[in-house]
Every structure is written in structure tokens, then in C-alpha cells.
Amino acid sequence: MKNTILGIALVSMLLTLMALISVVSREPRQAQGSTFVGSEYYATTTSSSLTSSACMPVMTSYKTLGSVVVTLTSNAGLAIYDATTTSSHADHATTTIAYFPSTAAGTYTFDVRAKRGLCITSVGAVGVASTTVTWRY
């Protein structure tokens, strides 16, 4: 009887020690800059030939719009939609996330979830070549 209790106690202590070693020896997630690996932002710049009728699809499916960085003030505007096309129809709705009638230099932070994807178009004049859009998965 004492041997059975002693055996169970030893096995329990061994399993507890193994679990403790497993938890303590794990590598912590390493931050790279101000974010963890896997949470970093990706970026793209708008094309100088961007038009209001054509959609520049940045991504499709669930993603997060991080920010819009405008480095040069312009009369050309910018529209960002939660969509993969500018055509709104029954199977594919278009939701406006951001609308800039004219682009003033600056960083505009959103951190908004896009369910369908991001579609970027120019408003008015053609092209907004000095704009960077960031997103993450």
C-alpha cells in the first residue's frame, strides 16, 4: 500500500516537473520593432495611373487597413472601399471606409477590419502617386 502511494506520488512529481520545464523553456515571441512577428503591416503605393473607374485591389478577404500615408498634398482625391470592385451589386456590396476629396499630406490611421478586401480608387483627377497604404492580415 505504501509502495503504491509512493509510486503515484513520484509519477505525479515527475509529470509536474516535466510540465514546469516545458513552460519555462518555451521561447517568448520576439518583438521586431513595435510589433510581433506575424502582426506586421504590409504596404503598397498608389499608381500614378489610378482612376475612379478602376479599382486597385490591395487585398481580398479579411484584412485590416492600417493607415494611409500621404507624402505630398494633391488635388486628386482618394477613396478606399471594403470591396474587391467599385461595382456594387446584390452579390457584392461596396462599403466606403475612407474618402479624401483632396489629399493633404499626413498619416491617417484607421485600424479598420475589411471583410471583403480593400479597393482603392482616385477621386476626380487621375493618380495619387504619393500615397502609401498599409494593411495586415
Keyword list:
alpha+beta, 137 residues, elongated, 10 strands, 1 helix, Jelly Rolls, 17% helix, four-stranded antiparallel sheet
What overall geometry do the principal axes of the alpha carbons give? elongated
Helicity range: 10-25%
What is the rounded Rg?
Answer: 25 Å
Largest sheet: 4 strands, antiparallel
Structural class: alpha+beta
Number of domains: 1
Describe the structure concisely for a colleague.
With 137 residues, this protein is an alpha+beta fold. It contains one helix and ten strands; from the N terminus they run αββββββββββ.
Task: Give the helix/strand layout.
Elements lengths: L1 H23 L6 E2 L2 E2 L5 E4 L10 E5 L2 E8 L6 E6 L12 E6 L5 E9 L2 E7 L7 E6 L1
Antiparallel strand pairs: 1-2, 3-10, 4-9, 5-8, 5-10, 6-7, 6-9
Q: How would you characterize this protein structure?
A:
By secondary structure, this protein is α+β, with helices and mostly antiparallel strands. The protein has one domain (about 40-135): Jelly Rolls. It is about 15% helix and about 40% strand. The chain has one helix and ten strands; from the N terminus they run αββββββββββ. The chain has one helix at about 1-25, and strands at about 30, 35, 40-45, 55-60, 65-70, 75-80, 95-100, 105-115, 115-125, 130-135. The strands form three sheets. Strands 3-10-5-8 form a four-stranded antiparallel beta sheet, with no helix packed on it. It has a four-stranded antiparallel beta sheet with strand order 4-9-6-7, with no helix packed on it. A hairpin with a 2-residue loop joins strand 1 and strand 2. It is elongated, with a radius of gyration of 25 Å. The N and C termini lie far apart (about 60 Å). The mean pLDDT is about 75.
